[in-house]
What we know:
This protein has a domain at 2-65 and 94-101: 2-Layer Sandwich (Alpha-Beta Plaits). The chain contains 2 helices and 6 strands; from the N terminus they run E-H-E-E-H-E-E-E. The chain has helices at 13-22, 53-63, and strands at residues 2-8, 26-33, 40-48, 67-78, 82-92, 95-101. The strands form 2 sheets. Strands 2-3-1-6 form a 4-stranded antiparallel beta sheet, covered by helices on one side. A two-stranded antiparallel ribbon has the order 4-5. A hairpin with a 3-residue loop joins strand 4 (67-78) and strand 5 (82-92). Helix 1 runs antiparallel to helix 2 (53-63). Ligand 2BA binds at residues 7, 34-37, 39, 41, 90-93, 96.
Amino acid sequence: xxxxxxxxxxxxxxxxxxxxxxxxxxxxxxxxxxxxxxxxxxxxxxxxxxxxxxxxxxxxxxxxxxxxxxxxxxxxxxxxxxxxxxxxxxxxxxxxxxxxxxxxxxxx
Length: 108
Ligand code: 2BA
């Protein structure tokens, strides 16, 4: 068994969770925050038998789009020791996915 941890954009999570649950995968959805942009994102925990990993990763790929996000969170030093917000475009997504071996899974 594997635990798939997928960090996705909030906009992509409804369709992704819907398709996973329609296909009878079990999903837990957590509200999370990215360390870099400090913006909300969604972390999904998906426990899956080994033979389901490929299908789940395909479903994640299908539902998660790459987007350009403009952030002004990064201050740069300007002459005179003042800080100015500096707009910066970063590409976010589709998804950051970690696939972890599960030693044991119990439902008690
Ligand atoms: P954030 O940390 O808010 O990062 C948002 C996006 O900002 C990243 O998109 C990436 O394009 C950019 N970025 C992040 N750190 C950067 C840096 N040090 N310098 C320049 N640009 C940087 P994604 O790579 O698609 O990541 C989306 C979200 O997935 C991240 O939000 C974070 O919550 C999570 N994530 C990504 N990689 C991770 C990892 N190795 N471990 C834990 N969480 C991760």
